[in-house]
Amino acid sequence: MTEAILYLLAGVVLAWFGGEFFVRGGIGLAAWARWPTAVIGVTVAAFGTSSPELMVAVHAALDGVPQISLGDVLGSNVVNVSLVLALVLALSGMKAEDGGVRRDWFIALLVPGLVYVLLMDGWFSRLDAIIMLACFSTWMLVVIRHARAHAAGRAAPAVKVSVLKMLAFSLLGLGMLICAAQFVVHGGRTVAAALGWSPFIVGAVVIAMATSTPELATTLIARMRGHHDVGLGNILGSNIFNVLFIAAIAALIHPYAVNMSEIQPSLIFGAVTTLLIIPGRGGHIPRWRGMLLLALYAAYMALTLNQGAGHTGIH
After folding, report:
1. Which residue in 27, 180, 198, 215 has the most C-beta neighbors within 10 A?
2. Which helix (H) or strand (E) segment is 295 a member of?
């Protein structure tokens, strides 16, 4: 148990410094490429911070238990919004300045509905996975077109940006975030096993929270540096990437049966929490939404733990 706690602490420290380097490098690269910072958040940052979910998905599929991946990504999506983003919002609110944030919010809102429609037959097939990957590819093309149009309408930055330096910061930060996630997942899994929790509870609560550590570090640091769009874009992009790409890859490797009653709470909470982060007038997202999201996360945790207790006899 002591070793597991040390892994958790090391993961938190690495995530913090990794997020600092990654945000600094990402902002520099965005300035150099004349891309909106939100695009860096929704693409590079989202892909980097979702790397733990991707590793879990591939390993689970190759081991013949791809269901773990679906539970992890759906649980992570709830954690990303109702805990990670909620904590940042509860501190001081946020403001989305790039118009592409609303587009990405709309796609993130559609994701739970798409999952429900595709999996309502109780089977996650390769055809379902291909449809998800096609949707993901279409969204990525739209994001890239938006970034290119934005760059074409802006002049080169007045201050010269060292591309190599910013790239080095980004890669260093990304590497630290990936290592942090592995430490946290390993430590969290060991602690959960020591507590005697079931695999379902471990996946939905511990692993989902652990794999969201990089999102928390990146979003919090981006907010502290005043780059709201990076933090918000990171959350929205991670949620889209988690389901449309990561879950699809796992099913493409190993199709499997799905228990709809088990995943419905995550889909419902995923949709409701995403509804609560739509930017208001002027792109502002007020503090009270963060408070409400934290309350919803508490309800989600209680429902998940209660459902696990019903299956495993946890009291």
Report:
1. 215
2. helix 287-312
